[in-house]
Amino acid sequence: MSNISRRNFLKKAAASAGGIALAASAPRAVAASPKGAELATVLDIGRCIGCGACVEACRTINNFKFPKPKKPFPVMSPQDRVKVEDWSEKQNVDSRLTPYNWLFLQTVDVSYKGKDYLIHIPRRCMHCQNPPCANLCPFGAARKLENGITVIHPDICFGGAKCKAVCPWKIPQRQTGVGLYLKVMPRFAGNGVLFKCDRCFDRIEKGKLPACIEICPEQIQDIGPRDAMFEKAKAIAKEYDGFIYGDTENGGTNTFYVSPVPFEILDRALKEQAQPGPHLAPVENSMALSENLGKALLLAPLAGALAAGASIAGKLKNSQE
Amino acid sequence: MRFQNQLSLGRVYKWLWGLCILGLVFTGFGQLPIYARYKLSTLPGLKWSADFYFTHALHEVFAFLFIALAVYAIILWLFGGRPALSKAGILKLIILVGIFATGIVRVLKNFHDFYFSPDTLLVADLGHLALAVVFLVAIAITAALSSPWFKKEYREQ
Ligand code: SF4
Ligand code: SF4
Ligand code: SF4
């Protein structure tokens, strides 16, 4: 997609995007989500030069969303089980994910088919198509917007970090001392708010590009409808006989990394070269069991009805005898 | 046809119903990140209680039992003289219907091809939790007052 048509597309996407605001103007309550039309990104990591401009842009553009915790933090019980997570004094850290850094670069030195590569991998939330972080959040704070973006609502999140526990890449990052828990029972429940890449949903609502995509001097990223982006990812992969990560991971994500080196090699290198943060290993669909059990629930009324039928038949038989 | 007392579901049914409510409550509260924080999962044999995916699956297994038992009771009620519910019974039924409805939304949202707006889910998520707490209070009160599900005049024994 050219930049112009991409912008037009984003304008349209903005018009149909469900807002994050609580008082959103009654968006459609339920829809058979057109998954192919969700927003997805392609990252051609074979061309990333590791300049870090995207990381810087993300930090600058999203700065106003970063936590502003009040200190001292309320004491939390039991103290040996619930730890303060405070990044507010380390806001400059940009070499890993933190509540103040939603995108960072992993760098690995690898060889493949007799060729050496220095690969830089921009890492942030994958925006899963069926995101366990949002599905399993008990408070409706982690949520998926209709355009496929997952966000964590900072005014609803209680900071229990369940989204992080269930995320296959452990993406969301906690900051203690902010959010709703402070107003409820800060000693006994909650521990701040979780933060992660929100795909610059607010910029997208205005028809703008995410900051990291716009700034990239090499234009290694693109964003658009998932089907089109997947086609693009396949075309890039074909060009250099490469590989795609994110299309089937966790049941399908809205992020496609394309690499000239197999992801198993990159994943191994991440570990061997002690790169922090998310892996690049294959990921099974986290929600598969839940989906299957959910479908089985449809049979529950039948089971009850059969048991009742048997019971009534038994009683009739007894009364006749 | 008229069954012996108000609704003769039998002792096994009562045990299953109790087990089902207990299971739903335990695995339901396990969806909040509290069992690890409050060390329940450090007790021998209870490590699984802090595994969200596992307790979530168990919750759905108990939900299966819950729906089956509810349908069983409704059919036996339909063919069993249809005894009138007491006020406590009506109240508990309304709460259960609410829990069921919000629960169904929560099941459907986990399907890959279903989409609900964030605000709908906020209501379903918080509603499910709040109604579960209200239901627990309701069973505690009705148990303390020993109020039955059905009006007294229908008790023949
Ligand atoms: S990568 Fe993790 S945080 Fe991002 S949508 Fe998927 S489960 Fe949620
Ligand atoms: S999409 Fe926005 S929030 Fe996400 S990494 Fe890029 S700049 Fe940061
Ligand atoms: S701005 Fe582009 S080239 Fe630079 S590190 Fe980010 S993705 Fe790579």
Would you kindly provide a written description of the structure presented here, covering whatever features stand out?
Chain A has a single domain, classed as Alpha-Beta Plaits (2-Layer Sandwich). In chain A, strand 5 and strand 6 form a beta hairpin. The longest helix of chain A is centred in the last third of the chain and has 21 residues, at 300-320. Chain A is built from 10 helices and 11 strands. Chain A has helices at residues 3-16, 53-61, 132-136, 162-166, 201-205, 211-215, 226-239, 263-272, 288-297, 300-320, and strands at residues 30-31, 39-44, 104-112, 115-123, 142-144, 150-152, 173-175, 193-195, 221-225, 243-245, 255-259. The radius of gyration of chain A is 23 Å and the shape is globular. With 157 residues, chain B is mainly alpha-helical. Chain B has 2 domains: 1-82; 84-157. Chain B contains 4 helices and 1 strand; from the N terminus they run H-H-H-E-H. In chain B, helix 1 (11-29) runs antiparallel to helix 2 (52-78). Chain B is globular. The two termini of chain B are 16 Å apart. Mean pLDDT of chain B is 88; it is low at 1-5. At the A-B interface, strand 1, helix 4, helix 9 and helix 10 of A face helix 2, helix 3, strand 1 and helix 4 of B. Strand 1 (30-31) of chain A pairs antiparallel with strand 1 (115-116) of chain B, so a sheet runs across the interface. One iron/sulfur cluster is lined by residues 58, 62, 102-103, 124, 197-200, 210-212 of chain A.
What would you report as the Rg of chain B, rounded to the nearest angstrom?
Answer: 18 Å
Q: Which strands sit side by side, in order, in the main sheet of chain A?
A: 9-2-11-10
Number of strands of chain B: 1
Structural class of chain A: alpha+beta
Helix content of chain B: 55-70%
pLDDT averaged over residues of chain A = 89
Low-confidence runs of chain B = 1-5
Number of domain units of chain B = 2
Counting copies of identical and different chains, the oligomeric state is heterodimer
**CATH topology-level name of chain A:** Alpha-Beta Plaits
Quote the distance from N terminus to C terminus of chain A.
79 Å
H and E order of chain A: HEEHEEHEEHEEHHEHEEHHH
Reported for the largest beta sheet of chain A, the result is: 4 strands, mixed
Bound molecules: iron/sulfur cluster
Annotated CATH architecture of chain A: 2-Layer Sandwich
